[in-house]
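Model the whole thing, not chain by chain.
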Amino acid sequence: MSIRHGLLALLERGQMYGYQLRAAFEESTGSTWPLNIGQVYTTLSRLERDGLVRSLPESASGQRPYEITDAGRADLALWFATPISRTDRPRDELAIKLALALTTPGVDVRSVVQTQRTATMRALQELTRLKYSSDNPDDLPWRLVLDAMVFHAEAEVRWLDHCESSLVRHRPPAAGPTPLSEAVGHSGEEARR
Amino acid sequence: MSIRHGLLALLERGQMYGYQLRAAFEESTGSTWPLNIGQVYTTLSRLERDGLVRSLPESASGQRPYEITDAGRADLALWFATPISRTDRPRDELAIKLALALTTPGVDVRSVVQTQRTATMRALQELTRLKYSSDNPDDLPWRLVLDAMVFHAEAEVRWLDHCESSLVRHRPPAAGPTPLSEAVGHSGEEARR
DNA sequence: CGGAGTATGCATACCTGGTATGCGGACCGC
DNA sequence: GCGGTCCGCATACCAGGTATGCATACTCCG
């Protein structure tokens, strides 16, 4: 429900139409998360259906602007006043992956951890590069979004190291080959049955 | 695509049918993320459509077990060998919310930050309580999943504090009332147009 | 025994977020 | 004026996910 409230917040600034909304949304987070234009229209029509937004007559140039209603303002205020709870966050794909790797036969968990760690470190470097090569150091929202990603990436690296040491403590280092990894590259042989 | 590969990994252990798969999936992460039964069946049929899985004839008691194919094994190995990149993660709803709060008129950003911080700290306490009141200290996958959530929550608190101090540096403390917050509770007055 | 209640395996309908594509008008260059 | 291309907008469709329906089978009684 992030986009729904995001559009509402933008409309709180004043009337806007579809493309303006997309541009404003992407700009407000420094184009970190792109927003599909089709999604904007479907979300707008749902917002109108729910009475949180009202569509205005088309302008001369054909754009259909929307404005927020009082009900929409109330919903928006409620959103800002309500913390995001742990239960309504998306699944942590990395955690699931590692948990499954631990119980799947033939998987070298250590190399999964190391591969991920390398990738995350690379992302972290890219983020700090972005942070300091910025040409708009006064864009506070964008800087905070970037910081959020840095903090998350750092936590992920710490967690991966923690996994590594837990593995050393609880699992004997593997001796034999890792059967599953040999299956890569033979895809499709069975699929065409 | 997390569930897709999750089910594949479970089938790598051996043949299983729908309910077994759901139970195994939930158990492997300590029932942290529930999995809907309907999702299991739709995902299984898509996996079969894509040749990664093969359905076996119904057993006498009516269950239809599935087994992984060689193509499925290859796909699974590829998944384990490929790190999760920053770009295919879901949107960070909290970061978006705060970025929007900064540019939405009439929003008290400080109170948004504080409300979230309180909620996250509470979640953190709950997590540590869970961690130490565990009756199965040898369940390594579950412990690591729990640790992942702890690390994320800690990073979130740090980030919120960072936002707080950035706000103090860059924004003068608000003086007037916060108009938007007064709209709460009047929802619907305009909706019935 | 028989019938109500309940758990289980399975299937379907539907909602939501998202991408790809179609379409008409405005603004070019020539 | 005419073809191209960009823009604002809309539609169709797909995938992931939840809620719900629906049989069968099992249990627990009177």
